[in-house]
Design a protein that fits this description.
It is a single chain. This protein is of the alpha+beta class. Among the domains are: 72 residues, no CATH class; 47 residues, no CATH class; 59 residues, no CATH class. It contains five helices and 17 strands. Strands 7, 8, 9 and 10 form a four-stranded antiparallel sheet that branches. It has a three-stranded antiparallel sheet with strand order 15-17-16, with no helix packed on it.
Length: 308
Amino acid sequence: MRTKRSIKWGLVIAAATVAVAAMPGCELLVDFDRSKIPEEGGPDGTTEQDSPPGDVTNPMDSSGGGDTSTPGDSSGGGDSTSDSPAEGAAESGSDGAGEAASEGGNDGPTESAAEGGANGTACSVGTTCGTGLCVNGFCCDVACTGTCMACSAALTGGTNGTCASITAGTVAPAGQCTAAPPCGFTGNCAAGGACEETTSGTACPGVCTGSSLTPGSCSGTGTCTAGSPGACPNNFACASGTACGTSCSVTGTAPAGVSAGCAATFFCDTIPATPICNGTLKAMNAACNNNFECVSGMCTGGTPGMCN
């Protein structure tokens, strides 16, 4: 950039040249030593040197190669432009916003996270951890959201801060491995980050009709598998559609009571302390309480009575 004094001297010389050239019959060639023009230091303390002067032809002669523009004419070839803010910042050595922030020592998000707690450090929120992940109360290496996975040594038997499978038999985290009896999940974790299934062979509801039961057993993979049908134990009848009865009873008033709970051709014998389903009718003079116990169908003499 020219200094103000350089511009002033340039205007004086240009004006003198125009005045002489305007005289009739005159053609002026001007050669001057610009080194005589006082020089000033630039803003940075250095001396600014203009381009070496060349031959200056008549400024009024449009055929000449001289610079006919005035300092204020923006369309001319003069050096009338000023530096843009960006150029000014570059020339003055000013840092851009990004460079300034970097040189200022402010950590970016990644660097700040890296300076957080190490894996295994106790935490309550992820922002205090280098990984940004707080799991089971410890800064964890990964999110550790898989089934039966944890980041606590108390749950995994491993190391705090390292995600691993929960020890087999441990109650599963909330929302995982929900218990589903009789043959589904037990509510605990199995080895290898899986849910524990009910053990194979565990009894499950079968199908009972009359006095015949088709039992069921758990497959170990969540289903109840039907077995082979058979008679209910101790000659009992089915108590429901899935199970046999375990006792019998007599309803009504002796000796005209009615047996219940036994398979066909069996009756509920109430003479023993614990009633049983008896399949053999009693002979004459045998102790009885109800008529249905006797071969004759008659039990007399009170309670107990005798088969007649």
